TrEMBL record:
Signal peptide extent: none
Transmembrane portions of the chain: 15-36, 109-134, 140-163, 170-189, 201-221, 324-343, 355-375, 387-407, 470-490
Domain of life where this protein originates: Bacteria
Keyword Coiled coil: no
Family matches, as InterPro entries: DUF112_TM (IPR002823)
Residue ranges that the Swiss-Prot or TrEMBL entry lists as coiled coil: none
DUF112 domain ranges (all copies): 21-439
Keyword Transmembrane set for record: yes
The protein, known as: Tripartite tricarboxylate transporter permease
Pfam families reported for this sequence: TctA
Alphabetically ordered keywords of this record: Membrane, Transmembrane, Transmembrane helix
């Protein structure tokens, strides 16, 4: 009964006309900034945070900022599908199959699959947040640095399944991504490394610069290099709703991804990113047609989108229950709460129940608003590519430059984007997949931080990763995933050798 009473209190707050208005404003802004290349929820919330300083009601402020966040999770899939440019880190995996679907004239189906998967997972993720916030927070709190290191290792190994080409090249891209993520000041000593004497690199490379470069700029260069590969969506898309066969193929991935995202979203770090990549890896492994992945499999759109939206909802658990931000967006929301005179932590549900439950209830309202707003606009999004390339490409580059520069008004990030864009084009021409590189870049700093912290706490004893049961199990799963990935390659080479000798 307590849960029902709390939800009743939450809906009484969330359904107030001004809070519904702020929720609508948040999801509209979130969808817009998520759809713009180079502008993600972190940058948009950082820019809009000063607007909330004058809010009399902290509930309205946090509802609007939260709406921007999970709205951007959906909006990022739009340019990922239509332009192969992820607007947000977790949308990078959506582009792998979403963009090929768009090139096949199924952009409407891909966008509808993303919207429906996001809606279902968002609602379920909010239900998980409402029903199990305290138990999930306690479970996440028991994870030590050794366990977190093993989780990241498992995620990186699983990402090899994302690459449609060579396993060795996928491993190389992960290592390159980790090396790029290590640029900047050392986490523990603050000593600059890999900066080549450039002070601009002391803070490391911007995610926006790297993501837009290797996905967006590299894609434009590829199109300009070979006009036959130019990605274009038909102006008139006849099918905007998944067929019965599509819906059957979506059900399993959406259910599995919702469960995966709900769990991983609670963990500190890039839970929503790891959930999206993990969902893709799982679906590729369990699919009866794994060869379709990378060429327009609807499971590769519905699953990751469901996973990242479920994780977006449950990532509020450690913020509200423990006062611990799971990633940079949550850190900004934590700052907004503190500015409003609220200290998140174990006592916030008792001290400010209207805030916590009003926020939770607003997430259901926001998810309904997202699907109601975006499904009718699918034709509008699809017609975006009716613009001539001579106008479209410069406009994309302009948006990318504006978004990259807006992070901290530093033109150096724009230069980095240009250089990495050329590098990304070279890698694509060499047959390397950019997705594992991006995951290595995002999770590399987390991998290093937990590795070093675990070794410090164990006084340099590496056996800590095997003596902790959770860590040992996760490393065992990572080893198993690596063997499962490599064995088919070895088997094909052996069969080829036997054939040639025969």
């Amino acid at each position: 009964m307590d849960l029902l009473d709390n939800l009743a209190l939450g809906f009484s707050e969330a359904l107030a006309w001004h809070n519904v208005l702020f929720c609508l404003l948040g999801v509209v802004l979130g969808t817009a900034v998520g759809a713009l290349p180079g502008i993600g929820p972190t940058a948009s919330i950082a820019l809009l945070l000063p607007l909330t300083f004058g809010f009399d009601d902290p509930v309205s402020a946090i509802i609007m900022l939260a709406g921007i966040y999970y709205g951007a999770q959906y909006g990022g899939s739009t340019t990922a599908i239509l332009l192969n440019i992820p607007g947000e880190s977790s949308s990078a995996v959506t582009a792998i199959d979403g963009h090929p679907m768009a090139r096949q004239g199924r952009a409407g189906v891909a966008l509808a699959a993303a919207a429906l998967g996001s809606f279902f997972a968002g609602c379920v993720g909010t239900l998980v947040l409402a029903a199990a916030a305290a138990p999930l927070a306690r479970a996440a709190l028991t994870f030590g640095s050794a366990d977190m290191f093993s989780i990241v290792v498992l995620g990186l190994v699983a990402s090899i399944a994302l690459a449609s080409g060579s396993t060795l090249k996928a491993l190389a891209m992960i290592v390159l991504g980790i090396l790029l993520g290590m640029i900047g000041q050392d986490t523990f000593t603050a000593v600059p490394r890999f900066t080549f004497g450039l002070r601009e690199l002391w803070d490391g490379l911007s995610f926006v610069s790297v993501a837009v470069a290797i996905f967006g700029i590299a894609e434009i260069l590829r199109n300009l290099h070979d006009p036959r590969t130019r990605t274009r969506v038909a102006a008139e898309v006849t099918t905007l709703w998944p067929t019965r066969a599509d819906r059957r193929r979506m059900i399993g991935p959406v259910l599995r991804a919702t469960g995966l995202g709900s769990v991983l979203g609670v963990l500190p770090g890039g839970g929503h990113v790891l959930a999206a990549y993990g969902s893709y890896a799982v679906e590729k492994r369990v699919s009866r047609h794994p060869e379709e992945f990378g060429h327009g499999a609807i499971e590769g759109v519905a699953g990751p989108e469901a996973a990242n939206n479920a994780a977006a909802q449950t990532s509020f658990v450690p913020l509200l229950a423990l006062g611990l931000p799971a990633h940079p967006v949550m850190a900004l929301l934590l700052g907004a709460l503190i500015i409003q005179g609220i200290q998140p932590g174990p006592g916030v549900m008792q001290a400010q129940p209207e805030l916590v439950w009003g926020l939770i209830a607003s997430m259901w309202i926001g998810n309904v608003l997202l699907v109601v707003l975006n499904l009718p606009l699918i034709r509008v999004w699809v017609r975006l590519l009716d613009v001539p390339y001579s106008i479209l490409f410069p406009a994309i580059i302009a948006f990318a430059c504006i978004g990259t520069y807006a992070i901290d008004q530093n033109p150096f990030h724009v230069l980095v984007m240009a250089v990495l864009g050329v590098g990304g084009f070279v890698l694509v021409r060499c047959g390397c997949e950019p997705a594992p590189l991006l995951l290595g870049f995002v999770l590399g700093p987390l991998l290093e931080e937990h590795l070093r912290r675990a070794l410090i706490l164990s006084k340099g004893d590496p056996s800590v990763f095997l003596t902790r049961p959770v860590s040992a199990v996760l490393l065992g799963l990572a080893a198993l995933a690596l063997v499962v990935t490599v064995l088919p390659v070895i088997r094909r080479k052996r069969d080829r050798v036997f054939t040639e000798e025969g």
